[in-house]
Amino acid sequence: MSLLDHDCFNKVSRRYAILIDVGYLYAAAAEVLLGATSRREYKVDAEPLISALISRARSQLPDGELLRVYWFDAARDRVPTVDQRVIAHMELVKVRLGNLNSRGQQKGVDAMIRTDLEQLARHRAIHEAILLAGDEDMVSAVEIAQAYGVRVHVWGVEPPYGTNQAERLVWEADTVDVISGDDCRPYFAKLGTAAAASAKIAGAPVAEPVPQQPSPASVFGQRHSVAVTMSAAEALEEAEQARPAFVRSTTGGKFDQDVVISIGEYVAHKWVLTRGRENIADLLPGPTLPTVIDKELLVEAEKELGYSLRDHPGARIWVRDGFWERVNREFNIER
User: Fold this and answer.
1) Domains, the chain, with CATH or none
2) Which residues in 6-76 belong to E strands, given as ranges?
3) pLDDT of 11 higher than 70
4) Which of 93, 146, 140 shows the shortest CA–CA distance to 115?
5) HSE toward the beta carbon, residue 306, CA cutoff 13 A
6) For the packed helices 257-275 and 313-330, what is the interaxial angle rounded to 10 degrees?
7) In which element (H, E) is residue 296 found?
8) 92-131 pLDDT, tens digit each
9) pTM over cut 0.85
10) Would the CA dihedral through 140, 77, 71, 178 be positive or negative?
11) β-bridge mates for residue 94, sequence order
């Protein structure tokens, strides 16, 4: 190997990525700066904020090469907002969207962060990772990444008191850095009453309230308990709001195979987001679903179609095919 080749190899091996839990970043910064608990109460100038975070990373890893910034946020029906579309056009920034339900809660974001960090490490795409997050759910992904030789630098936002990051996450980090409120101040502004009302009408994402005396258990345990206590009516409302536009507009009153398969894929995608990868993994390896789950799948598909599948065995098969195509893709299973 020539000296030039050796230098190029070293440069690639020093590559790093920045993974940002936007819900945590916004909520933590808004609390310390503005005393705000809802994302409808403030506006964020995201483009210069992201540029500032990249500059911070480059100053801390001067010999590294930025692969990209992963911007994990949420949106209704996973349809990006205007701000998210602007961010998606930034160089070296990849927007990853979870679903935002009717209660303003993010679904599937933590799972995407864990999956991306693990995949980057497993495929040797990076040597170091900067993780701006606070949830204890990130610990397993940090441990896996470290097992593949990746150094994980955990960043947090200065809390007004106590802590806003899970203690175990801080323990497992290779290094820890705290972004001060002053560093965040140029990018956050509180909205007036009229602007906040407009944001509510527009369906802006909502940050979960932070307890008065937060602890890792109270701050990061709440999002798991909410799904368990959600009423049937709320679950139906969320399902209706999550219906993708392309399904509504292409059914056309007939059973088109591609449309029916896409509905099966959509139902599987929604299940992974709302029930978690762990629960969906119990269905593997397939292709036969438990009777109760199979019935639920067909009911969900009928809601999207607006027609009964009882007398259409071929369409029922297409729904199941779409379901398994999505699940197999999610879990990287080849058939």
Assistant:
1) 3-222 (3.40.50.1010), 243-330 (no CATH)
2) 15-21, 42-44, 65-75
3) no
4) 140
5) 11
6) 50
7) helix 291-305
8) 999 999 988 777 778 889 999 999 999 999 999 999 999 9
9) no
10) negative
11) 70
